[in-house]
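Batch manifest, entry 17 of 40.
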Amino acid sequence: MGDAFRLVTGMFLSHDPGMLLGHTVLRTFDSGRVAMSNAVSDSAREAAPSLAVESPRIDGALSSPVVQFDTSGVDVQQACGCNGAATAAGAKMRFVQGHQDRFLQARNKDTLAPSEHHSERSVDVRSDRDRKRGEAMMSFLKSLPSNFGRWRFLVMGLSILLISACSERRSSFLDPGGPIAAAQRAHLIEVVAWTMIAILPVFILVPMLLWRYRYKNRKARYTPNWEFSGWLDLVMWGVPFIIIAVLSTLLIRSTHALDPYKPIASEQPPLAVQVVGLDWKWLFIYPDLGIATVNELAIPTDTSVALDLTSDTVMQSFIVPALAGQIYVMAGMRTKLHVLADEPGTFEGENVQFTGVGFTDQKFETLAMSPEDFAAWSARVKKDGVVLDAATYGRLAAASTGRQAHETFGSAQMPDGVIYFGQVKPGLFDSIIHRYMQGTPVPTAEQPGATGYVPPTAPRGDSQ
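Output type: structure tokens
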């Protein structure tokens, strides 16, 4: 995903997106890349030995060979056949491009030298495969239009859609997994549709007016003394007024309908989950089940989930875009959020409030599963989890990412970056909130997230 995103943004910002895309394709196919680089090196040495610097051939895909040119004491323009206006850098590029047609011939003449671990037949097969891949890549690069850069916006948009569709984790309300996110998407569509009433005429009429009243059009009526039209004023002021009135009505309705404190009706009894924001991880406590997890929120489908949220450090922002909206969590305060998933799936949740160096890693997975699978999941957590008491929580609250905390509290039975607690101290969530309601400031040594926080030491002989 990271490579694909860099490719898309690079195509958008690059002056030559076609060349960047071709370079990425070459990097994707290691064997073809080596064949292409070796062939260019061979053809370069054959065509102009005085320009090509000797570069070793590469066996396999161990590194990325680069053809370099030494132009000291050499007339680059004369050697490359460039005109006088060409720069040295342009001459080098044209020199390589001028020998692209000789690439296949040079590649067919040379095969990789067999090593002691490969037979001659395996080298021939690999060489043939490299040749075919290199041929396919060259055909693709030659097929790119010369004005490819003009289409960078369209290519970027389509690429982003394709990349987002490849993710197994749903992370947008545009791909909803529950009624709240679906209502948010419908609200967005309504707002955009009403806004287009004012925007579309601008995009349509401005080009028409420019064309109608262009300098060479003698048929356009010239009325320099015109200054008022009642119908035009009615449209210009009346239409925006109607749009604002409609959007205000939609906003009021959706605000009450999507109130995060409002329970969601479901046939199954609601599931209570207590959420604690820490640096830089999320703690989920299931008080009715006596279990807890870090960075993994499991919920049964078609069941309303009532989340009580707080923070034991700085203010954070909790969101699961494909299931519910965003809500802030603060130390000493309790906020509420209701979630319902109407289908199984994996949904990405995160903190979208910057909280320090580990902020980008403060993400978690919401696993929506059938009630039977949820019962099996809770039994596995109770079996494989460790004990979460006051001392364990104190060490867990120290600033660390989920992966770092997993190294301390996790085991091989737990997913990477996730921690299971099979036993939880009763009333732990309320005690976290009440620490900030004593009428006196919490000492720095007892404040998770503070610079001087001192977590409890682990009992001797306890690895956790």
